[in-house]
Design goal:
Elements lengths: L6 H10 L17 H15 L5 E5 L5 H9 L4 E6 L2 H13 L3 E7 L12 E7 L8 H14 E12 L5 H34 L5 H11 L3 E8 L2 E7 L1
Parallel strand pairs: 1-2, 1-4, 2-3, 4-5
Antiparallel strand pairs: 5-7, 6-7
Length: about 240
């Protein structure tokens, strides 16, 4: 495997790119079906978590997903985690501007952060877990998420994924490349693809689902999948 960006390098990158990740209605425009996915996750969270009191947004970025949860649960207690202090500051301010209740802000890498057991009704992770570098890291992080959810709590992720069959991966990656070209032209396409090559190590939805079942989640499913992006949920 080629060398990928370190957590320190990712922190510097995200500190520079805050505004690129701040779009409440669309999410990240470099991801296919971003608006559909963020709308779907918001509605699904509202339907599956009546009475939710607490949430944790892992890799919160500019706060798009936390703000969507806030629409469903205006008084929910929000905990934010991100590598980038600039992202955390922006997310917290956006939530507080809407009278949201930010109870915890943690700067750091989810791989080294401890989450209190049975603490959250909802955990979200949008466009962050593709920075995990091995299946062992995936296992450790998912076990941490599972333990920190209350009984009946739900986990939601929207992320870059891959296909285990190389020919399918090539077809779907080409679709994504064409999407980027239409979105912003050749320079934009080049920038995003180079960033993925340098920084990202996505996993397959097949692996993620198997792992979630093995850890102990009692419900696991794919909410949406298109090309190399997928939204999944799991209930403890």
């Amino acid at each position: 495997m080629q060398r990928k960006s370190s957590p320190e390098e990712l922190r510097e990158q995200f500190n520079r790119d805050v505004e690129r990740f701040v779009n409440l209605e669309m999410g990240q425009t470099s991801t296919m079906d971003s608006k559909l996915a963020i709308d779907l996750i918001e509605k699904s969270i509202g339907a599956l978590n009546p009475g939710a009191l607490s949430m944790c947004d892992i890799g919160c970025g500019g706060g798009n997903f936390a703000l969507r949860v806030l629409r469903q649960f205006p008084s929910i207690k929000v905990s934010l985690i991100d590598l980038s202090p600039n992202m955390l500051e922006r997310a917290a301010q956006r939530i507080r501007d809407l009278q949201g209740n930010v109870v915890s802000i943690t700067e750091g890498d989810i791989r080294s952060i401890e989450l209190k057991e049975s603490s959250f009704d909802i955990i979200t992770a949008a466009a962050v877990l593709h920075h995990l570098r091995s299946r062992e890291e995936w296992k450790n992080v998912m076990e941490k998420i599972y333990r920190s959810l209350k009984s009946g709590g739900t986990f939601w992720m929207w992320d870059l994924v891959r296909y285990e069959e190389k020919n399918l991966q090539a077809i779907q990656y080409e679709r994504f490349s064409e999407y980027l070209l239409k979105q912003g032209g050749q320079e934009y396409q080049r920038m995003i693809l180079e960033r993925i090559d340098q920084s990202d190590t996505p996993e397959s939805t097949a692996f993620i689902q198997r792992l979630l079942w093995q850890i102990g989640f009692r419900e696991v499913d794919i909410l949406h999948k298109n090309a190399v992006f997928a939204a999944l949920y799991a209930r403890k």
